[in-house]
Write a structure and sequence with these properties.
This protein is α/β, with parallel strands linked by helices and 500 residues long. Helices cover 40% and strands 20% of the residues. It has 16 helices and 22 strands. The strands form 6 sheets. The chain has a 7-stranded mixed beta sheet, sandwiched between helices. The protein has a 6-stranded mixed beta sheet with strand order 9-8-7-10-11-21, with helices on both faces. A 3-stranded antiparallel beta sheet has the order 5-6-22. A hairpin with a 7-residue loop joins β15 (371-372) and β16. The longest helix has 22 residues, at 111-132. Bound molecules: 1,4-dihydronicotinamide adenine dinucleotide (NAI) and magnesium ion. The site of 1,4-dihydronicotinamide adenine dinucleotide has 26 residues, from α8 and α9.
């Protein structure tokens, strides 16, 4: 699949999944309802997807509960569970091309990104947690001769995962893989914009030998399907990536139902700070542009606030604009494309409204700002850069979740930190400096869950990922994610002295 013609031919051959999976069976909605799945590439309908609701969620949770209670998964030996998760990863790898096509058709992201980033990282995530599952140790307490205490990690039970459309399979696996690795059952509600890869991977899990009911995929809209999952009295935890308003609702649903645990990853307004002593201006300019334009800006860690030290601002912004100008908005199916369509008409509309607001508030447009490729029927927006953004302006404060960069200037380190931390969010952040002392000082004072020094988006599955402040709480990736899907149980053995 090196050329557009080859990719188009592969799309013709592609069979799209049509059902969710409940209790190990391919399943339509209980009431037979469906919805049209639209491709942002050309606005055309790809197919019909089950529009599941509360009744389907009930069935999926019941299947997940039954699987958890009878221990068909959690009581297998670690070796046996590992073998099944590896088999799943192998099947995903064998179908990587098809999964990548589905991801691109569903989301509008470049096929080259789906093939090189989304699908390989989703597979790597499954393998990483499969490898890790017999390396999670408990603790032995200090105790004494008459008492031995141990703390063991026990799976929570039924995990409800509600996931977004920007990295559909990758984000789903960040949650599903560690949850399964710890012995839980999972009910996944993928985003309605991009359900295909989750639907297919649930089928592959059955083929891989995952016992029925351990991994269920219920397709449908946030309300009713996601809400029914989050309100369910028999779900032990909701793990979520998505918007702040929905994150708030999930906490309310928890309080109104069974106090299920909630873990939230809610996006941000990430600052990328470029100091005048930056060791590599070309690399920083690349990172400034691609940090926000990667995946059409639809990234929770998008570097949407660029903070540049005053004395280098003009020169540096010229470099950033040069990089951004070279980005061609193209057909997501073309392997040459690095910047594709936005996920939906709604998301495009939101970004265009933010562009209007920025103009009206006096931010200076340096590049882009227009919808393009309208003949395609798809949802395309140019990479857009605003300069001279005031700290109080909407573009400096609100998450666009689109390819819109706002650049601000600062005087000194103190000023940079003040501006960087002046946000309700705290997910990603980054800085460019040649000074080790400055790098250490600033990275410890940034109020964010991720800090990247002299590089953007530079860490991987081995490190925890998640936010401070209103970017949410709980961590994906790393061994910490496994602990999130477990409870700690303290067991104390009272020892009678057998010598007496
Ligand atoms: P959203 O938060 O509505 O959707 C995310 C997931 O939540 C989807 O699976 C959706 O079906 C589900 N959902 C929606 N309402 C729900 C409810 N009442 N109960 C349970 N589940 C519910 O996000 P949306 O509308 O797709 O995008 C809007 C904004 O959200 C974006 O502009 C962006 O700012 C943010 N977002 C952030 C993401 C991140 O990576 N942190 C990912 C996607 C969106
Ligand atoms: Mg879609």
């Amino acid at each position: 699949m090196q050329t557009l013609a080859e990719v188009r031919a592969a799309v013709e051959r592609l069979a799209l999944p049509e059902r969710g999976t409940i209790g190990g069976r391919l399943t339509a909605a209980a009431d037979g309802a469906t919805f049209e799945n639209v491709s942002p590439r050309d606005g055309r309908v790809l197919g019909l997807v089950p529009r599941m609701g509360a009744a389907d969620i009930d069935a999926a949770v019941a299947a997940a509960r039954a699987a958890f209670e009878d221990g068909r998964w959690r009581t297998l030996t670690p070796k046996a569970r590992k073998r099944i998760l590896f088999a799943l990863a192998d099947r995903m790898e064998a179908e990587a091309d098809e999964l990548a096509l589905m991801e691109t058709l569903d989301t509008g992201k470049p096929i080259t990104d789906s093939r090189n980033i989304d699908i390989p990282l989703a597979i790597q995530t499954v393998r990483w947690y499969a490898e890790a599952l017999d390396k999670v140790y408990g603790e032995v307490g200090p105790g004494n001769a008459a008492k031995l205490s141990i703390a063991v990690h026990e799976p929570l039970g039924v995990i409800g995962a509600i996931t977004p459309w920007n990295f559909p399979l990758h984000m789903a696996m960040w949650k599903v893989a560690p949850a399964l690795a710890m012995g839980n059952s999972v009910v996944l509600k993928p985003a309605e914009q991009s359900p295909l890869t989750a639907m297919r991977v649930a089928e592959l899990a059955i083929e891989a030998g995952l016992p029925a009911g351990c991994f269920n995929v219920v397709t449908g809209f946030g309300d009713p399907a996601g809400a029914a999952l989050a309100r369910h009295m028999d779900v032990d935890m909701i793990t979520f990536t998505g918007s702040g308003p929905v994150g708030r609702k999930l906490m309310i649903y928890s309080g109104e139902s069974n106090l299920k645990r909630v873990s939230l990853e809610l996006g941000g307004k990430a600052p990328q700070i470029v100091f005048a002593d930056c060791p590599d201006f070309d690399a920083a300019a690349e990172a400034a542009a691609w940090g926000v334009f990667f995946n059409q800006g639809e990234v929770c860690t998008a570097a949407s606030r660029l903070l540049v030290q005053q004395e280098i601002a003009d020169e540096f912004m010229a470099k950033v604009v040069e990089v951004a100008r070279s980005i061609r908005v193209g057909d997501p199916l073309d392997p040459a494309t690095r910047f594709g369509a936005m996920v939906s008409r709604e998301q495009l509309g939101t970004a265009l409204r933010y562009i209007d607001t920025a103009r009206n508030e006096g931010d200076r447009l340096l590049l882009g700002g227009r919808q393009v490729r309208t003949d395609s029927g798809g949802f395309y927006l140019e990479p857009t850069i605003f300069d001279c953004v005031a700290e109080s302006s909407t573009l400096a404060r609100e998450e666009v979740f689109g390819p819109v960069l706002g650049a601000l200037t600062f005087k000194d380190t103190k000023d940079a930190l003040r501006i960087a931390n002046d946000t309700i969010y705290g997910l990603a952040s980054g800085l460019w400096t040649g000074s080790l002392d400055r790098a250490m000082t600033v990275s410890r004072q940034l109020r964010a869950g991720l800090v990247w020094v002299n590089g953007w988006d530079a860490c991987d599955i081995t490190m925890p990922f998640g936010g401070f402040k209103q970017s949410g709480f709980g961590r994906d990736r790393s061994l910490h994610a496994m602990h999130k899907y477990a409870d700690l149980k303290s067991i104390t053995f009272t020892v009678r002295d057998t010598n007496t």
